[in-house]
Every structure is written in C-alpha cells, then in structure tokens.
Design goal:
Elements lengths: L5 H16 L7 H56 L5 H13 L2
Length: 104
Amino acid sequence: MKGINAIKHRNLFAISLKIQGDVDQSVDAAALLALRNEMAELNELYRQYLELLQRLEDIVQDYESKERTIRSKILSPSLRKLAKNGQIGADLRMIITSLNSCAH
C-alpha cells in the first residue's frame, strides 16, 4: 500500500479550484457540480487519511516505548542475573544475541 501524496493532492485541489473559477459557458454545469462533489469527498478522505496517519504514528511510538521497557527493564536484568550466576549456556547466549538484535 502506498501513502497518499500530499503534493499531488494539493495540486489536484488547486487545478479543481482553477477550473471552477475560470468557468466559461462551454463547461457543462453538471460536470462542474460533479467535480465539486467529488473534490469535497476527496478532501474528506484526505482528512481521514491524515487523522489515521497521526493515530498510527501514536500507536507506533507507544509500541516502541513498550518494547523498550520490556527489553530493558524486564528481560535484560533477568538475563544479566542468570549470566552472573553462571547459568550462561549456548541457548542463553542465543537468547541474549536475539534480544540485543531487537534493540537496533
């Protein structure tokens, strides 16, 4: 899925306004009405898109914060304690390596 291009949206809106403002008698009134209605719907969809994008950004930040907390405040201290007590084996090294790779 591609994001909506803000520049393309603004350009389309500007062109639409220009056509509506520079209308002469050769342009069909029904076509102009359809253009206005479609542009209104397009603008509403774009507004909803921006709102959802902001919500997604907030969710991603919350996820990253929670992931960092789990990794650094819960898992890492427990693994360090196991390693300090001499319980470090190949399996534990693999877990530590995997956990460290999550930090990048």
